[in-house]
Design brief:
Helix content: 55-70%
Oligomer: single chain
Distance between the termini: 53 Å
CATH architecture of the domain at 6-153: Orthogonal Bundle
Order of helices and strands: HHHEEHHHHEEEEEEEHHHHHHHHHHHHH
Mean pLDDT: 94
Number of helices: 20
Largest sheet: 5 strands, mixed, barrel
Shape: globular
Strand order of the largest sheet: 4-5-9-7-6
Length: about 600
C-alpha cells in the first residue's frame, strides 16, 4: 500500500507555505516547491519499498545480542546502507561538514515517511539528528570536525544516554562519573538503561552523548555535564563502551533498547562543565517533536489499513437498508461507529501532523529570522507547544491505533494483519522523552505559570485572528467554528489564571491539574489548526470536502471532550491528596 503524501503536501504548500517561509528567512539552500515535492515522493517511495516490508520482520525477529554486539533483524542493515547511499542522512547537515544544508523541517517531512513505514528502523537514523544539533549548538570546533562529518554522512549514528535505573526521569540523581585526564579528556564510568539504538550493526561507529557528574561538581542537576563518548575512539581503537543487555519489551522489537556500560571509557566534554542539563534540552526538544510525529505516523499507518479494510470487509446491513444489494452484506464502512473511529483517526493524524509541522516552522523562525523580536516570539510559542506535541499527540494517537484494531475486530487482534503491532509500538511514545505526566507539569508549571503564559498568549492571538477571519467568511460552518474558537480562547485564558491563583496557595493543584490541562489545551490547539485547514481548503475544490467534513466532525464530536477535562481541573486536588496513603494502597505492598 503506497504511503499517502497528500495531506503532507497540503500542509507544506497550502496551509503553511513552506517555500515562502524559507524565502522569508533567506535560507541558503531553500528548496522550492518542486524540489520539496520530489523529496517527499522519493522519501515515500524509499519508505514504501525498503522499509515497510521490514516492519513485521523486525517485530517478529527482534534484535539479538552476541558477545556485546547487536545483530539487527534481517534486511535492516541493507536498508540503512541504501539510506546512506541515497544521501538521506546529510539533508540538513552544515555544508562545511559535508551536509546539504537544507532546512531542518525537510528532515521532519522525510521522518514522517520513514516512521509511517517502520518506526523501529527509523529510530536508528533519527536519533542522530539530536546529537548533531547538540554538537552544532554546544560543541567546540574540534569536536565538530571530528564528529559531525561521519554523523552527517550516516557512517556513524548517535544516541542520547540519560537514564539510569535508580533515577528514571529525575536526571539530577545520575551516578555516572567523569574523571579528568591530563590531556583534557575524561574517564566515564557508569551504566545507562533504555538506550534506543545503543548498539547495532548498521553503522561503523556509534556516538553516545552521555550525562555524567565530574568529580567535585555539585549534587543535583546543577552538577551535570555532557560528554561525547564514541564506541570506537577517534584513534580507531575500541572504547570501553559495551552493551551488556537488551531489554525484552512490549514493542519496537526491531530497535535495540540497550543497557550500556561505560567502564572507564574515554569521553570528550561538550561545552562547559556542569552545563549538561541546558545542553540536554537541545536534544530533548528535538526528540520530543519527533516522538509526537512518531505517534502521528503510527496512527496514519493504522488508519491506512483500517480504511482499506472498512471498504472491503462486508458484515451486516446498513441501518437504513442495503447499500450494496449486489453483495451478501454491506461494507462495514456504512456503519456509524466504524465511521466514527475512522474519522477520529483521521482527525488526530492530520491535525497532529499540522501541529508538528507548525512547531517545526516556528523553530526555524526562532533560529534563522533576522529580526530579534520575531525570533523571540517564535521561540516562546514553540516552547509552549512542544509538551503538547509530545504529550497530547502521543496520547490521542495511541487512541487512534487502538481504533484500528477495533475496526478489524478479531482479525485485528492477531498478528497477521499488522494492526496490533502499531498498538504495541505506539505505547512507548507516551513514556520516553518524558512521560505524559512530565509534559503536563512542564506545560502548566513551566510554560504557563512560570512565564506568565507568554507562549499561551501568542497562541491565543493566533486563535483570535483566525476567529475574526472565519466570522467574516460566507460559509456558515466556518463562521460557527470561528465563534467557538473565540469563546474557547477566553475560557482557556480564564482557566489558566484561576489555576495560577490556586497554585499559589497549594502547589499540589499544579500536579493535580497538569494532565487534564495538557489534554484541554491540546484539543483546543488542534481545533485551531483544523479550522485553519478548513479555511484554506475552502479555496481548493480538491481538498475542501474532506478537510471541512473532518473539521466539522472534530468540532462536534472530539472538541467537546474539553468539558470533562475542565471539570476535572476545577475539581481541584482534594479528591487526590485528601485520601490517606492507606486508603489508596490498602491490601497491597508493604
Amino acid at each position: 500500500m503506497p504511503i499517502n503524501t497528500r495531506n503532507a503536501r497540503f500542509l507544506i504548500h497550502d496551509v503553511f507555505d513552506f517555500p515562502a517561509h524559507y524565502a522569508a528567512l533567506e535560507m541558503a539552500n531553500a528548496p522550492e516547491a518542486d524540489l520539496l515535492d520530489a523529496i517527499l515522493e522519493e522519501a515515500a517511495r524509499f519508505s514504501e519499498n525498503e522499509l515497510r516490508p521490514l516492519n513485521q520482520i523486525g517485530d517478529q525477529q527482534g534484535c539479538r545480542l552476541q558477545e556485546g554486539e547487536v545483530i539487527t533483524p534481517q534486511g535492516f542493515a541493507e536498508a540503512y546502507a541504501a539510506y546512506v547511499e541515497g544521501g538521506w542522512p546529510s539533508l540538513i547537515g552544515a555544508a562545511r561538514y559535508g551536509g546539504q544544508e537544507l532546512p531542518e523541517s525537510v528532515a521532519l517531512f522525510v521522518e514522517d515517511m520513514t516512521c509511517t513505514a517502520n518506526l523501529a528502523w527509523s529510530m536508528y537514523s533519527g536519533l542522530s539528528r539530536g546529537v548533531q544539533e547538540a554538537l552544532t549548538a554546544h560543541g567546540g570546533e574540534r569536536q565538530k570536525q571530528d564528529f559531525l562529518p561521519p554523523l552527517i554522512s550516516g557512517a556513524w549514528t548517535g544516541t542520547m544516554c540519560l537514564t539510569e535505573s535508580h533515577a528514571g526521569s529525575d536526571v539530577g540523581l545520575v551516578r555516572t562519573k567523569a574523571q579528568a585526564n591530563a590531556d583534557g579528556t575524561y574517564v566515564i564510568t557508569g551504566t545507562k538503561i533504555f538506550i534506543s539504538a545503543g548498539e547495532h550493526d548498521l553503522a561503523e561507529n556509534i556516538v553516545h552523548l552521555v550525562l555524567a557528574r565530574i568529580d567535585g561538581s555539585p549534587d543535583g542537576t546543577r552538577g551535570i555535564s555532557m560528554f561525547v563518548v564514541p564506541k570506537i575512539d577517534l584513534d580507531g581503537t575500541p572504547n570501553n563502551v559495551v552493551c551488556s543487555a537488551l531489554e525484552d519489551k512490549m514493542g519496537i522489537h526491531g530497535n535495540a533498547t540497550c543497557v550500556m556500560n561505560f567502564d572507564g571509557a574515554r569521553g570528550y566534554l561538550v561545552g562547559e562543565p556542569d552545563a549538561g542539563m541546558s545542553y540536554m534540552f537541545t536534544m530533548m526538544n528535538a526528540a520530543r517533536l519527533v516522538v509526537g510525529l512518531q505517534g502521528v505516523c503510527l496512527a496514519q499507518a493504522s488508519h491506512e489499513l483500517a480504511a482499506t479494510y472498512a471498504q472491503e470487509r462486508v458484515q451486516m446491513r446498513s441501518l437504513n437498508g442495503p447499500s450494496r444489494p449486489d453483495l451478501p452484506a454491506d461494507p462495514i464502512l456504512v456503519h456509524p461507529d466504524v465511521r466514527r473511529m475512522l474519522l477520529t483517526q483521521k482527525a488526530f493524524v492530520e491535525g497532529g501532523r499540522a501541529l508538528v509541522y507548525h512547531v517545526g516552522q516556528l523553530l526555524e523562525i526562532a533560529e534563522h529570522a533576522s529580526d530579534d523580536e520575531q525570533r523571540r516570539l517564535a521561540d516562546e510559542e514553540a516552547d509552549f507547544l512542544t509538551p503538547i506535541v509530545k504529550g497530547f499527540l502521543t496520547e490521542v494517537c495511541f487512541e487512534a491505533v487502538n481504533h484500528g484494531v477495533q475496526i478489524f475486530g478479531g482479525h485485528g487482534y492477531i498478528s497477521e494483519t499488522g494492526v496490533e503491532q502499531h498498538v504495541r509500538d505506539a505505547r512507548i511514545t507516551l513514556i520516553y522523552e518524558g512521560t505524559t505526566q512530565i509534559q503536563g507539569l512542564d506545560l502548566l508549571g513551566r510554560k504557563v505559570l512560570m512565564t506568565q503564559g507568554v507562549g499561551l498568549m501568542h497562541v491565543l492571538g493566533r486563535m483570535n485572528a483566525l476567529a475574526q477571519e472565519l466570522a467574516a467568511h460566507a460559509d456558515a460552518d466556518l463562521g460557527r467554528f470561528g465563534g467557538q474558537l473565540s469563546t474557547l480562547g477566553e475560557e482557556w485564558a480564564t482557566l489558566s489564571m484561576e489555576l495560577g491563583s490556586r497554585a499559589g496557595k497549594d502547589a499540589n493543584e499544579i500536579g493535580a491539574a497538569a494532565v487534564d490541562y495538557l489534554f484541554y489545551s491540546g484539543y483546543i490547539v488542534l481545533g485551531y489548526l483544523w479550522a485553519r485547514m478548513a479555511l484554506v481548503a475552502c479555496a481548493s475544490e480538491v481538498m475542501e470536502a474532506g478537510a471541512k467534513a473532518t473539521c466539522r466532525f472534530y468540532f462536534e464530536r472530539l472538541l467537546p471532550r474539553i468539558a470533562a477535562h475542565k471539570a476535572a481541573i476545577e475539581a481541584g486536588a482534594g479528591s487526590l491528596m485528601d485520601v490517606s496513603d492507606e486508603a489508596i494502597t490498602s491490601g497491597y505492598g508493604a
